[in-house]
Specification:
Layout lengths: L20 H5 L6 E4 L5 E2 L6 E4 L5 E3 L44 H11 L12 H6 L24 E7 L6 E6 L4 E6 L9 E2 L11
């Protein structure tokens, strides 16, 4: 089957910001705080988690050491609760490349919550809007499109969201940190994952 790709255009403004694009996105330089294993503020680049003080979301931070949060790990998209009668929307279980958990999105979330990262057990897969909120469009010429002082192991690559693509049961949404946009890909393809916790109503919207 020929691979199908859908690329959507984002709305180019963060909520509550005005002025030039550089001024709008300068918030990426100031809105983060690094959190240590106990959830307290630590020096940037050393945290186990990253708090976005604008949205209120807290993000998993990756490491360069062996273990559950190693940045090299990639996961297939899997959710056993998705419809699987005539069309199997569940994705592929344990189809990635990792250690310390089964290598799919569902089991990775379970493993991180069991470990209680930064003292929390409500970690989940992010939405497109949430990944957009940490994507800095000023850096498209030198990706990844993220603040590397707080996300030092962010890759210039694609990260899974928690949502599949309604038009194609074997596909799900991902966020591309090379160009700063969303994309659809096959659930079986291993991708990076960055978990999030909390809820925010103050998020930029990815254009449908």
């Amino acid at each position: 089957m020929k691979r199908r790709i859908l690329i959507l255009v984002m709305i180019a403004a963060l909520p509550g910001c005005g002025g030039s694009p550089d001024e709008q996105y300068a918030v990426h330089d100031t809105k983060y705080r690094a959190l240590g294993a106990a959830g307290v503020v630590v020096e940037k680049g050393t945290g186990r988690c990253v708090e976005d003080t604008l949205t209120g979301l807290i993000w998993e931070a990756k490491t360069d050491t062996a273990g559950l949060h190693n940045w090299r790990h990639r996961y297939s998209w899997f959710n056993p609760n998705e419809t699987h009668d005539e069309l199997d929307y569940r994705g592929l279980e344990d189809g990635g490349e990792c250690t310390d958990s089964a290598c799919d999105t569902w089991n990775f979330v379970i493993a991180v919550n069991d470990a209680g990262l930064c003292g929390y057990r409500d970690w989940r897969m992010p939405t497109r809007d949430e990944l957009y909120s940490i994507s800095d469009p000023r850096k498209v010429d030198a990706p990844p499109t993220a603040n590397l002082e707080y996300f030092p192991f962010m890759q210039a690559d694609e990260y899974w969201t928690g949502f599949d693509y309604a038009m194609q049961y074997e596909s799900a949404w991902a966020w591309n940190f090379v160009y700063g946009h969303d994309r659809v890909d096959w659930k079986r393809n291993p991708k990076y994952v960055r978990l999030v916790r909390g809820r925010s109503t103050d998020l930029p919207d990815v254009k449908e």
